[in-house]
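Hi,

I'm pasting everything inline rather than attaching a file, because the server keeps stripping attachments. The sequence lines come first, and each chain or strand is labelled.
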Amino acid sequence: AQSVTQPDIHITVSEGASLELRCNYSYGATPYLFWYVQSPGQGLQLLLKYFSGDTLVQGIKGFEAEFKRSQSSFNLRKPSVHWSDAAEYFCAVVGGYQKVTFGTGTKLQVIP
Amino acid sequence: DTEVTQTPKHLVMGMTNKKSLKCEQHMGHRAMYWYKQKAKKPPELMFVYSYEKLSINESVPSRFSPECPNSSLLNLHLHALQPEDSALYLCASSQDPASGSYEQYFGPGTRLTVT
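And the predicted assembly:
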């Protein structure tokens, strides 16, 4: 069965600082991986996705993620965080027949 | 256009009421999903419709009844709910499942409160 682990429940960074959110997955085959962002009381917005090919993928809002098969990781990065990036971030893997498994989420707080 | 719309935005209902949640997408997607999300938790899959047919039911209680009248529309009928069913209900859609494109696009959700 597929699973996703986001080890950091809560992360606080200063505005302008760099950001890395960790995600580890477990899946037997080549995974389809996603990062979503959710502002309070809102739906989820797709930030980026990895299916195959280049292991460094670019997304919206200046985010990127790197797929590392040897480490079963798909960490999300941003070089300079803005106050508007404060939100909940979910890593997800798609397994059999479109079933998405989400990680437990990482809440990002941005301080001035 | 990558928009999924949901109505209503908020819903308060008593335990004896019958209500429905509505979801609509006009992206030509052929798979649609219902998720339930409790506070500070990730979304939990409830139902998947593929080509207007129910393909996955994650052992959801029968007081939740999904319906997919056409490829653009997804409803969730609610009856005799319990207070613990209060949550954010999210709808999502994705492209033709056979194409191997799995990214899901989410609506803004309906905040449901059962009193």
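The radius of gyration of chain A is 13 Å.

If the labels don't parse on your end, tell me and I'll reformat.
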